[in-house]
Amino acid sequence: MISESLEYDPLHDLQQIFSKQESLSDIDNLVLLTEKCKFNLEERVRESNNTSSEVNSLEDNYDFHKLFEKINSTKSLSQITEATISDLTHDISDLDNAKRNITRSMTCFENLKILSDAYVNSKKYMQAEKYIEMCGPFKVMHSLSVSFHEYKSLDEFCKFLNQIHRLESDTLLVCERVTKEVLRDGSNSKYDSKTMKDGICCLADTNKHYKERIVQLCLDSLLYEIKEIFQIDDEAGSLENLSRRYIFFKKVLNNFQSTFSEYFPSEWEIPLKLTDSFFTMTSNDLKTLLKRDLSGTTSIDLFMQSLQTTLEFEKYISVKFSHIYEGKISTCFEPYLKLWVRHQDSSLNAKMLTYLNETKLPAKNESLVVPSSADLFRTYRHILSQTFSLIEGGNKSTIMVELAVFFVKWLNEYYEKILKPLLLPEDTQIDDKNEVVKYTVLLVNTADYCANTIDQLQDKLCEYLENDEPNINKVAAIFEPTRQKYMDLVSGGINLLLNRILKKDLEFVWREFTNTNWANTMVEDYSRYVTTLQSILLPTRSENSTFYSTVSQFNRDLYGWNFIDKTIDLIAISFESQIIKLLKPALPYGTLNSKRQFDVKQVINIAEQLLLDVQLLKTTLHSLPESLPQHDTSAKRVTKHIDSNVEKLMHLLKLLVSPIDPDTTYLETYYAITASQNTNSNFWAFILALKGVPWDLALWKRVWSEFQQSDDDTQPMKPDDLIFNPRELQNFIYNLSRVSDPSWKTFLEEDLKIKPVPRPDLSVAIQSSPSPPTGSPSPKIPGHKLNEIKNLMSNSSFFFKKG
């Protein structure tokens, strides 16, 4: 049970031994057993100590000196053995070195023999003018001679290498002589194409320097006449004769390709190098000529003729070499490109005259956009593409700004001469509504197309300017006013369609509204005017409505949705104006002698009928988005807009339909609609007047006292939240504040706290919001002035055609 662990705890064993009282009787046996265990442990300790002493004794008696002597002896023996082996293999190493030297010497002598034979054969063939046979040994001689340069310190080798060098020099001279003779005599030369190509050119190919010399010799010989004839100090070298220079080079190039192409290897690319050399030479001459001839009086015709000739020549070369050659001479014209840009004025002026005489309507099955607008921007793209092809750096910022000014100039011309005349003047009578709609939608689509393309044109120029922020801002500032003019034209066209086309159609609706016998109306069915409104807005099976014809012809749905929004506002505001016009009291205010057209009961009856009519109006307006391709976002927004406007109309009508007696009923209705008990006294008086309440001061005070008893801190709604046109309310307050009766004046100023307001400018209200027309027709234009307008508006006589 006793553990040998150093952490042994005897208490644990004692608790187990004496766990019971009976175990005390065996305590003597336990003591004996413990003594016995103690003796055993002591014996084991003594044995362990004896073993450790023996090991230590052995370690003390070990002789390390003998061990080191044995190691040194072994080391000496290994050194002796190594020296013996080295003596035995020394002769073998000498033999290996001798073998390598002999092999190298044999190789050297073999190469020397080959080199000597190649030299002799090359010299022999050169003297015999057998250049094709000479190619093989000459290549061998040239390649092997390089390996003997390390032996130049030996006299014989040095002498031999000098002879080889002289032969190579003579070979180069022979190649140059033969090349000159071939280029001079052509097919009449005694050297045929095979000798030249497989002999002379093959010899020149052995050395890069030789090849360059022969190629340069060819270029100099072929271009010699051009250099001599077209010197910049002579008349032949002037800008006027630039086309002759190009023609002459074409002749040289074609002559080389037809006569000498078989004489030279195709991989030498002599035609390309010849062209590149000509381009470099001509570019240097042009820089001098342009600086000299254009520094004084600018000759645009000469500049344009030279530039056009150069562009045509570059195009010819590009096609001839299958577009693999990208050299440019036209870059010399970069510093003078302003002249080129300004020269485009003549072509744009000619196009503008053409646009004036063209029909404005596109062909059938095409977008309703003036065709000339697309042609104008195609011309711009061509000019831009040409400019980009001319510019490769340096002066591009200046040219981009110059182009922006040029583009804007003709965009303004197009605006003034082509598009602006399509917008019907305000004082012109509309005789053919459908034609006006067609041309006005054409105007809107074209102006929008131009505005968007102007943005793209600006982005293209700014993209080429990269990170040049000052010039990017300058280009943007140049384009912005013109783009805004086109957007104003879009706005003007939409306003014309809304206020002079659709509003004119709605005149008949409001005329029916006015002619309705409201005093005796019966709330049974929809009124006639609202069904007429439905027929004007929604298409039938037999024909489209004016509204549908307008919306469906817009190229962008954005304008269709915008037009629907404006139509909704126009109808809602006009409807409210007709209600106010029908119910507002006649002047003067504040006197019982001023009779009301309708009493309170009649107004309630009218309001009930109008609430019924508004339901059909709401259904009609909800059908308007069906005329456009459905977009969930736009359709939901328009639906919300319709509901908001109709709800405002219904709030007004619910206030009108609510009876005055008892006062509490009207009070609760008023609070529920205005969302406040602390009402606006101006609006309260306005609604009470519309309800047909007579100018009985006692009645007004009684109703007002009910409102005054309420106590609410809620901010009252603003008039703008309750009616569409607050100027109607302002006009009412202006007339109300002018009452002459002292009692009414006291009531208004002390109880209602109504303060005098300036008379509203109703003409401004009519212009700022699409309120209904007064019913007067547009003024007729005298006959003699009509012809003047026709002359001013090119090809726009459609405004004056009889329907």
UniProtKB/TrEMBL annotation:
<dbReference type="InterPro" id="IPR038260">
    <property type="entry name" value="Vps53_C_sf"/>
</dbReference>
<feature type="domain" description="Vps53 N-terminal">
    <location>
        <begin position="7"/>
        <end position="359"/>
    </location>
</feature>
<dbReference type="GO" id="GO:0005829">
    <property type="term" value="C:cytosol"/>
</dbReference>
<dbReference type="InterPro" id="IPR007234">
    <property type="entry name" value="Vps53_N"/>
</dbReference>
<dbReference type="Pfam" id="PF04100">
    <property type="entry name" value="Vps53_N"/>
</dbReference>
<keyword id="KW-0333">Golgi apparatus</keyword>
<dbReference type="Pfam" id="PF16854">
    <property type="entry name" value="VPS53_C"/>
</dbReference>
<dbReference type="GO" id="GO:0010008">
    <property type="term" value="C:endosome membrane"/>
</dbReference>
<comment type="similarity">
    <text>Belongs to the VPS53 family.</text>
</comment>
<dbReference type="InterPro" id="IPR031745">
    <property type="entry name" value="Vps53_C"/>
</dbReference>
<keyword id="KW-0967">Endosome</keyword>
<dbReference type="GO" id="GO:0000938">
    <property type="term" value="C:GARP complex"/>
</dbReference>
<dbReference type="InterPro" id="IPR039766">
    <property type="entry name" value="Vps53"/>
</dbReference>
<feature type="region of interest" description="Disordered">
    <location>
        <begin position="762"/>
        <end position="785"/>
    </location>
</feature>
<protein>
    <submittedName>
        <fullName>KLLA0D09394p</fullName>
    </submittedName>
</protein>
<keyword id="KW-0472">Membrane</keyword>
<dbReference type="GO" id="GO:0042147">
    <property type="term" value="P:retrograde transport, endosome to Golgi"/>
</dbReference>
<feature type="compositionally biased region" description="Pro residues">
    <location>
        <begin position="770"/>
        <end position="780"/>
    </location>
</feature>
<feature type="domain" description="Vps53 C-terminal">
    <location>
        <begin position="608"/>
        <end position="693"/>
    </location>
</feature>
